[in-house]
Amino acid sequence: MSEAALTISGLDVRYPGGGRAVRGVDLSVAPGESFALAGESGCGKTSLARAVLGLLPPDARCAGSIRVGGVELVGAPKRTLRAVRGIEVGYVPQDPVTAFDPLRRVGHHVAQAWRAHRRTPPPGAVARLVAEMGIPDAAVRLRDWPHQWSGGMLQRATIAAAVAHRPRLVVADEPTSALDADLAGSVLTTLRAASPSLLLISHDLALIAEHADRVGVLYGGRLVEVGDAAGVLAAPRHPYTAALVASVPRPGAGLPEPLPGRPPAPTETIPGCPFAARCPVVRERCADEVPPMRDGVACWAVSHG
Ligand SMILES: Nc1ncnc2c1ncn2[C@@H]1O[C@H](COP(=O)(O)OP(=O)(O)OP(=O)(O)O)[C@@H](O)[C@H]1O
């Protein structure tokens, strides 16, 4: 079997003040795979993505292991993280408009992918790459200013920059949240086709079902369900995933059911299942024992009937 593009084991991310945003997460992304992380706001998706990119704030603490292409990133010196980021791991930001300097031409931004590593883009490479992302007349259009491009075109340019060095993995944190719904699908199709493997952060379950091979659902910093994306979202097994799916409005499906209560704060110490306080099928042991991940679900009610 070929080596995973990304292997995360026992990952914890803590912020000053005791906030534990990610708690003991294990996951891996295979070469060629698109893996999505889903969950409510505050569940730890961005903290996990930033840990992989080596972009956590300096006072954040990371424990456990993150391996990309055999290189351990947790505890690695800044020099190693800089060498990996942009070369082994590409990054597609959330909002393409703010990612561009309005006073620099679009081509300058894409060429930064080389300059950031003290390299010069080979002749024609920037235009070729941007054309591959579906921008017509790329060589000419690269001389435009960012305001002359639409949000969808700019996001395609950031994808071009993210894959310039043929990384093992692309990390994209809500890459379509600033785009119209009709553009989101086509940009994700481009992103997926351009990425050798993809860690996609999104709260849009419909986009995940369509554009990810597997999904991991995070709740209170813990992974509660992992599996085939379309399958998990069509027939969720964890009560939290089921509640998340039921809270999405769907045409012709009546009113969505809002999720009652609030997710736990990262500063809370929760001895058992993080979802216990909101769970419709809660058992006695859920309050005291963290359910282990079994067969893709971390839930006492599912794994013990
Ligand atoms: N720099 C920080 N210092 C302290 N706490 C932080 C910091 N960044 C994030 N947090 C907290 O960690 C928790 C997880 O945040 P994170 O941004 O990773 O979640 P998320 O699922 O990506 O949410 P969103 O979708 O809103 O971005 C939240 O409670 C957040 O307030």
Could you give a short description of this structure?
With 305 residues, the chain is α/β, with parallel strands linked by helices. It is built from twelve helices and ten strands. Helix 5 (125-132) crosses helix 7 (151-162) and helix 7 (151-162) packs parallel to helix 8 (181-194).
Describe it.
The chain has 2 domains: 1-88 and 167-304, 3-Layer(aba) Sandwich (Rossmann fold); 97-166, no CATH class. The model has no long low-confidence stretch (mean pLDDT 93). A 6-stranded mixed β-sheet has the order 6-7-8-3-9-10, with helices on both faces. It has a 4-stranded antiparallel β-sheet with strand order 2-1-4-5, with helices on one face. It is globular and about 65 Å long. The protein has 305 residues and is an alpha/beta fold. It is built from 12 helices and 10 strands. Residues 15, 19, 21, 39, 41-47, 57, 266 line the site of adenosine-5'-triphosphate (ATP). Residues 15, 19, 21, 39, 41-47, 57, 266 line the site of adenosine-5'-triphosphate.
